[in-house]
Design goal:
CATH superfamily of the largest domain: Aldehyde Dehydrogenase, Chain A, domain 1
CATH class of the largest domain: Alpha Beta
Strand order of the largest sheet: 10-13-14-9-8-15-16
CATH architecture of the largest domain: 3-Layer(aba) Sandwich
Number of helices: 15
Structural class: alpha/beta
Shape: globular
Oligomer: single chain
Radius of gyration: 25 Å
Strand content: 15-25%
Number of domains: 2
Length: 469
């Protein structure tokens, strides 16, 4: 049941003074070494799961207010992903945190070598508005799992979800361990004054550069989960019914406000008309003839985003859709045909339910076009295995799906992240644990035997040279 509280439209910014106090208290708490205890981390992961389940209805209500997300979509794309991530870490953490023995080369004889996994320290997690719950809490799972303290900074553009998360964090965690601060640019600037051990940022490439520059002042580690124009190739041998349905879903979930949504379509010219007709049919099958009345179609997050997106629509190019309503920030799923690479909509990530379509005659042309642009966060290919392998071999992207869209984000056993302009570093599952950890190599030498080969004046240099090759 969706609760009916008053919608929040703005947030009170956390002061720089308070941020400083939080940072100081977290540094001191981390210095107690309590978070390094695996039993403590497991306990905190269980508490986080309890918190999410306790606040579940309030989370759904907040997401409905911020983005008009249905309960079903909110569960599938936000809550369930966090719960699954917690469960995966609970299952694997003891093994991940255990020191790993590694072999030692002969030159180190007699000794043993191992890798220790240490928490980096106090982390800063800055999350966006498009999946405001999942993209804030999922990195937090990695921070807890590795033994870090965490300051969370959600987006001010999803204030209802941010307020619910703030209440949840305050109720279940002490601020010296995990704290959530509110605000926009000024809050970010205040946060950047402090030497966090790691900054985990999800958002645009433009802001990612600002974050990286700020992190450089303190030599803080950064993980940047950014975006880009993720291409979707549909070849002539693709299963068009499945391709249409999966592209329509991947493009319209959360009203296209997904960092890995298919940004534009590259379709073989021999099947374009048939594919576009099937995409329209798929949209009607999912949302009905009157999509504005659907309970499962989200809305654009802000007036500014709405104006930007509607400004991209050119009536002469609209194959399907194009309807919009400023009052409710509704934009219908829209297909733009006969798009040119020079068109405005092809210059930046769309981040909305608008799908530009371009044709190709040969797959090599599609590959060349992708490679002429920045490396995307995701790449999608619909077609046979042989060509799919060729596309993967000749392109680069953060992740990819063959004959589907979006699904690579749901596998906790795979890394998720960008490359180049679409990001650096990755997370999910074990990679989240590693993202917030320092791998510390340790060699333990014997005190019973001390080989003189390593000491000057190197009388046995010939022997040393043979050993070292």
């Amino acid at each position: 049941m969706i609760l009916k509280e008053e919608i929040i439209n703005s947030m009170e910014e956390t002061s720089g003074t308070k941020i400083g106090a939080i940072f100081k208290s977290q540094k001191e708490f981390f210095g107690t070494h309590r978070t390094k205890e695996v039993s403590f981390r497991i306990e905190q992961l269980k508490i986080l799961k309890k918190a999410v389940l306790s606040y579940e209805d309030r989370i759904y209500n907040a997401l409905a207010k911020d983005l008009n997300k249905s309960r079903e979509e909110a569960f599938l794309t936000e809550v369930s992903i966090v719960l699954q991530e917690i469960d995966f870490h609970l299952k694997k953490l003891k093994g991940w945190a255990r020191p790993k023995k590694v072999s030692s080369p002969l030159v180190l004889f007699p000794s043993s070598s191992k890798v220790l996994y240490e928490p980096l320290g106090v982390s800063l997690i800055i999350s966006p508005w498009n999946y405001p719950f999942q993209l804030c809490l999922n990195p937090l799972v990695g921070a807890i799992s590795s033994g870090c303290c965490a300051v969370l900074k959600p987006s001010p553009d999803s204030p209802n979800t941010s307020r619910v998360m703030e209440a949840m964090i305050k109720e279940y965690f002490s601020s010296e361990y995990i704290s959530l601060v509110q605000g926009g640019k000024e809050t970010n600037q205040a946060l950047f004054e402090f030497p966090f051990d790691i900054i985990f940022f999800t958002g645009s490439s433009r802001v990612g550069k600002i974050v990286m520059k700020a992190a450089a002042e303190h030599l803080s580690k950064v993980v940047l989960e950014l975006g880009g124009k993720s291409p979707c190739i549909v070849d002539k041998d693709a299963n068009l019914d499945l391709a249409a349905k999966r592209i329509a879903w991947g493009k319209t979930i959360n009203a296209g406000q997904t960092c890995i949504a298919p940004d534009y379509l590259l379709v073989h010219n021999s099947i374009k008309e048939e594919l576009l007709k099937k995409i329209v049919e798929a949209l009607k099958g999912m949302y009905g003839e009157k999509i504005k009345d659907s309970n499962h179609y989200a809305r654009i997050i802000t007036d500014n985003a709405f104006e930007r997106l509607t400004g991209c629509l050119d009536a002469k190019d609209v194959y399907h859709g194009g309807e919009s309503d400023a009052e409710t920030r509704f934009i219908a799923p829209t297909i733009l045909d006969k798009v040119s690479p020079d068109d405005e909509i092809m210059q930046e990530e769309i981040f909305g339910p608008i799908l530009p379509v371009m044709e190709f005659e040969d797959t090599s042309k599609a590959i060349s076009f992708i490679n002429e642009n920045r490396k995307p966060l995701a790449l999608y290919y619909f077609g046979g295995k042989r060509k799919a392998k060729d596309v993967l071999n000749k392109t680069s992207s953060g992740g990819a799906c063959i004959n589907d869209t979006l699904l690579h984000i749901a596998n906790h056993k795979m890394p998720f992240g960008g490359v180049g302009h679409s990001g650096m570093g990755n997370y999910h599952g074990y990679k989240s644990f590693l993202a917030f950890s320092h791998e510390r190599g340790v060699v333990s030498s014997s005190t019973l035997i001390d080989l003189s080969l390593k000491y000057p004046p190197y009388r046995f240099f010939g022997v040393i040279k043979k050993i070292l090759g």
